[in-house]
């Protein structure tokens, strides 16, 4: 019985260590980024600690978001202002999108974004611009 307990402890303990990442996300809080989409819709992002502006080059949508950092790697975005919407596309002003940085590379990071009011979850690579 003791041997089984030790094996289970080692198995679950090592799995916890293997799957828990300690990511330093500070380099991604304030910068300019691009989310490159293979369908030709690139989103350019300018972020400060309290504001994020997104511009989609294909749709010409331009939003200003209020950003709230819940920790170094997670934030929520809420539309503060629609700066440009040439196609008059509807966008709910009360939608809150939660973004979590899952992993980082030298000049980019992987982000999971989700909204609770609709079935929307997307994982994407966000690239730092120089």
Give the structure's gist in a few sentences.
The chain contains one helix and eight strands; from the N terminus they run H-E-E-E-E-E-E-E-E.
Kindly list the characteristics that best describe this protein.
14% helix; 130 residues; disordered N terminus; 8 strands; 50% strand; single chain; eight-stranded antiparallel barrel; globular; mainly beta
Shape, principal axes of CA atoms: globular
Number of domains: 1
Largest sheet, in brief, is: 8 strands, antiparallel, barrel
The number of E-state strands comes to 8
Low-confidence runs? 1-20
Structural class: mainly beta
Report how far the terminal alpha carbons are from each other: 58 Å
Q: What Rg do the Cα atoms give?
A: 19 Å
Helix percent reads 10-25%
Strand % is over 45%
Note the total helix count: 1
Oligomer: single chain
Strand line-up of the largest beta sheet: 1-2-3-4-5-6-7-8
Structure description:
- It is built from one helix and eight strands.
- It has 130 residues and is mainly β.
- It has one domain.
- Strands 1-2-3-4-5-6-7-8 form an eight-stranded antiparallel barrel.
- The longest helix is centred in the N-terminal third of the chain and has 18 residues, at 2-19.
- The model is unreliable at 1-20 (pLDDT under 50).
